[in-house]
Amino acid sequence: MKTSATNRRLHILLTAISENKLNPRPDFQRRLVWTNDDKLSFIRTVLRGLPFPEIYVCAGTLDPDTGESTEYLVDGQQRITTLVQYFKGNPTLRLGDLTPYAKLTTEEKESFLEYDVVIRDLGKHPLNEIREIFELINSANYALNTIEIKNARYAGEFKKFAEETAKRPEFRKWKLFNGSDEKRMQDLRYSLVLLSTLLSTYFNRDDDIDEYLSRYNDVFPEESQLRQELSETLKFIDNLGLPEKSRAFRKTDLFNLIVEVHRAIFKRNKLLDPGITGTRLAEFFSKIDAVSNLMQVGDDLIPLVYYRSTLRAAIDKGNRYRRGEILQSIIDPGYKPRIRFSTDGDFVQEELSFETNEEGEYDH
After folding, report:
1. Banded pLDDT at 254 (limits 50, 70, 90)
2. Which residues touch 81 (CB under 8 Å, ≥6 apart)?
3. Cα(219)–Cα(157) distance, rounded to whole angstroms?
4. Using CA atoms, how far apart are residues 94 and 39, in angstroms rounded to an integer?
5. Do 117 and 55 meet the contact criterion of CB atoms below 8 Å apart?
6. Which of 39, 92, 111, 114 has the fewest CB neighbours in a 10 Å radius?
7. Are 210 and 150 in contact (CB under 8 A)?
């Protein structure tokens, strides 16, 4: 396949877009979701006349009677869209101390419009072939896991806060993440899921984190409050006096423990004593260890239900919910876990609900 690289003046691209002769194809895009600051940095690059990487286009439609044709913008959508926003004075682009295009001098406007953009023309091919070609160009992404792709796509405030959270000293003290976790960004994934859960409620796996990465990409108004609440929650857990080898510090168990301590303190407004709570949790986790070692725990089925929820599909919504309800009842003995179960021999039947009210409490 032969491709050609040429330069086009920016004003030609802007005109082509306004006349619908250059059409973005967002289904091709696998690039960073830019923050407002990213956009401003890019605009400054162009205003200073500095180069940026080539963009890709391909042939679109062609009217054989009129000769009118269109092109598809395959890669470079955010760069071109940002320049269009700046040129047209789009109010969603917050310029800060950057001079609006309308207030540039005539010479500055001409320099902006005459900026050379390097275009790589992929030619005319069926769209499925163009998509395959583009994926091959970006084949490095094939080796990425889900969270690494999200990391490559988002650079905003929520992700930055999650990165900060992953480096919390408490997590280091509890040896929550190993070298492999950090290498494959599983510490970031864990933090993203945790923070998203604290802002909402339990969800399935990491299904909802895209929503928060996108919603809080530019600004994260809740950051200060959530940082304070998380700090107090982790400090409380650190003061529980649990032994270093306690299963409370395993990823799955700690996730629920953080969420439920936060829920008790900040959503249910409970005054908790770390010494008393720590004793309750230590006793409960010892029962879990007994179950895991096939030891008898009497007629108390709750440790068995909890333990089973950690064995398979531990990060599914249902199992997160089970563990959370049980831990809330350990943290606060007056709380009745909203899991109803009965036994038939060794079989445990459960009924549970995921509904929550406005205060974040689980309803039947």
Report:
1. very high
2. 24
3. 6
4. 9
5. yes
6. 92
7. yes
User: Strand, helix or coil at 249?
Assistant: helix
Joined tokens for residue 363: 């309803």
Contact (Cβ atoms closer than 8 angstroms) between residue 198 and residue 360: no
Closest CA to 307 of 293, 320, 291, 321: 291
Could you give phi then psi for residue 113, rounded to 5 degrees? -70, -25
CA quadruple 133, 138, 143, 149: dihedral sign: negative
Residue of 129, 115, 141 whose CA lies nearest to 55 = 115
Take residue 22 and report the two structure tokens written for it.
Answer: 């250059």
pLDDT in tens, 52-85: 888 888 888 888 899 888 998 888 888 899 999 9
Residue type, 176: L
Cα–Cα distance measured from residue 326 to residue 302, given in angstroms and rounded to the nearest whole number: 7
Task: Please report which residue ranges of the chain form alpha helices under DSSP H.
Answer: 10-18, 36-47, 77-88, 106-113, 127-137, 146-153, 157-166, 169-173, 179-183, 186-199, 209-215, 223-238, 251-262, 274-292, 302-308, 317-331
Separation of alpha carbons 354 and 238, rounded Å: 29
In sequence order, which residues have a C-beta less than 8 Å from that of residue 6 and are 6 or more positions away? 118, 119, 121
Calculate the average pLDDT of the chain.
85
The residues with which 341 forms a beta bridge, in sequence order, are 350
What is the Cα Rg of the chain in Å? 27
Distance CA 198, CA 255 (A): 10
Whole-number Å distance between alpha carbons of 314 and 303: 15
Question: Is the four-CA dihedral 168, 170, 172, 176 of positive or negative sign?
Answer: negative
**What are the tens digits of pLDDT across the range 185-207?**
899 999 999 999 999 999 999 88
Which H, E and C letters describe 233-245, residue by residue? HHHHHHCCCCCCC
pTM over 0.90: no
Look-up of token digits 């720590």: 278
CB 192, CB 162: distance < 8 Å: yes
Instruction: Report d(CA 38, CA 270) in Å as an integer.
Output: 42
Q: At CA 72, angle to CA 67 and CA 75, rounded to 5?
A: 155
